[in-house]
Amino acid sequence: MDILLSSPRGFCAGVVRAIEIVERAIARYGPPIYVKHEIVHNPYVVHSLEQKGAVTVENVQDIPDGSTVIFSAHGSPPEDFALAREHNMNIIDATCPLVTRVHNEAKKYSKEGRKIILVGHKGHIEVRGTMGQVSDAVLVDEQNGEFIPKWDKNTPVTVLTQTTLSVNDTANTIENIKNSLPSAIIRNDICYATTNRQEAVKRLAAKVDLVLVIGAQNSSNCNRLREVAEARGVTAYLINSVKELDSSWLEGINKVGIASGASTPEILLDQVIRKLEPKSIETLTSIEEDVTFVLPDELK
User: 167-180 and 192-205 helices cross at what angle (nearest 10)?
Assistant: First the structure.
């Protein structure tokens, strides 16, 4: 069996920044450091940080008064920040700058009197954070774009997107919105890392018999990578670790493609590769990434 590795893969700049924020906060303020929601959607990363002194919580009200709280890379609604300030917490914002940009767009266009449509996945933490920026945003599901508000075609509308969506599905949904609301301003906010990894998997799928996407089941961008491979007619599985690898999947397989989402550490791929014991390993490189984000001022 041969292995073809997708590239780019793994950590994006927003994930690198978020993890470093937690590590620096623990070093500066000492444990426990509370993290509102998983800092990134990967249990290996979350557990590693918890061993160093991070405590992951889902509700700000569960954090003791005066504690240090870090808001996760996915973003949070304004009321979470307000509650933290009300309880005298030391707030550190690890929201990915590209998610913050979507928040700012929502507030800007809403102040201009435009209605906001967000294309995204209902219930996703990033969607909850963006929807919370304005009072009347409407969510349109990425894969069910026919459910578009029945507004007059001349209604001033701005369309924003979750940063981790399927590039192809989102394009189709936006096309449906433009057909109903031709004057809408379209702000395609799918991030560079999501786009690059999906393009890399498209190339990968054309060269292998099976694709393994390494990442968490609750990671939006990892799920999209599996879907991209399947859309190319290749069997694909999303596994969080080598423990989830089923040997029956490999029967009759000559070449395995391996990809990973933006919150997946490389060590998890290494473990899968060692388990497969390939005859050869090759990397299929498409786009070189050199994006970095600065840390919050209090942690520089």
Answer: 120
Please confirm, yes or no, whether 251 is among the known catalytic residues: no
10 DSSP assignment: S
**Catalytic residue of the set 38, 126, 142, 227:** 126
CA–CA gap between residue 147 and residue 251 (Å, rounded): 42
Would you say the pTM of this structure is higher than 0.85?
yes
| Per-residue model confidence as pLDDT tens digits over 113-147 | 999 999 999 999 999 999 999 999 999 987 765 57
Contact between residue 144 and residue 165 where contact means Cβ atoms under 8 Å apart: no
How many of the other CB atoms lie within 10 Å of CB of 172? 13
**What are residue 185's DSSP bridge partners?**
158
CA distance 253 to 273: 15
**For the chain, which domains are there?**
2-11+192-285 (3.40.1010.20), 13-96 (3.40.50.11270), 98-189 (3.40.1010.20)
Q: At CB < 8 A and 24+ separation, what contacts does 241-244 make?
A: 241/44, 241/214, 241/268, 241/271, 241/272, 242/268, 242/271, 242/272, 242/274, 242/275
